[in-house]
Amino acid sequence: MEAGGPDRPRRGDDPTRPADDGELRAGQDRAADEHAAIRSDLRSLRSWVIVLAVLTAIVAAVAVFALIEAREAQDAQSSTATATQADIERVRDQLRERVDALEARLEDAPTSQRVDRLQTRVAKARQAARSASGEATAASDRAERLATRAEALEQRVDALETQPDTDGNQQQDGTN
Question: How many CB atoms lie within 10 A of CB 153?
């Protein structure tokens, strides 16, 4: 039998004592992973909420437009209920067509992956442009140095052509 009885904790098993550092770090890592996953899910959910909010706003605007159209049609043709019903049906058809067109446009919208790939391609193109610009500048500098050297050589050749030769005659056009 242990000191303090079977119901009492042993000296090293104090339940009020925090877990050791390894357990604490593992728990923190799991919590950080869960937090990152939740953050990712929230971003995705936020995107869909925005899409749904835009669609809702568009549908609401179209519905208000349809109501206004219907009311105007009803006021203009209050003589018969049949004419008003026909106008409402016409507006509903227009509304359906508009909603279908909006849904088609939404399906054609680029996904975030396509946008990310496009951004990556743009970044690579910018880097290539910077590199090409640097290479063009270096080539231009080399061309300027070569032009300067060629000019110096021309001046030396001109100076040598105008010097008198060893017989005391001046050389002209490379002949003695």
Answer: 10
Cβ(160)–Cβ(170) under 8 Å? no
Structure tokens at 80: 């018969």
What's this model's pTM, rounded to 2 decimal places? 0.29
Cβ proximity of 21 and 27 under 8 Å:
no
SS3 170: strand
In this predicted structure, the answer to whether residue 146 has a pLDDT above a threshold of 50 is: yes
DSSP string, 74-131: HHHTTT-HHHHHHHHHHHHHHHHHHHHHHHHHHHHSPPHHHHHHHHHHHHHHHHHHHH
Nearest to 55 by CA among 123, 107, 122, 7: 107
Q: What does the angle CA 142 – CA 145 – CA 150 come to, to the nearest 5 degrees?
A: 125
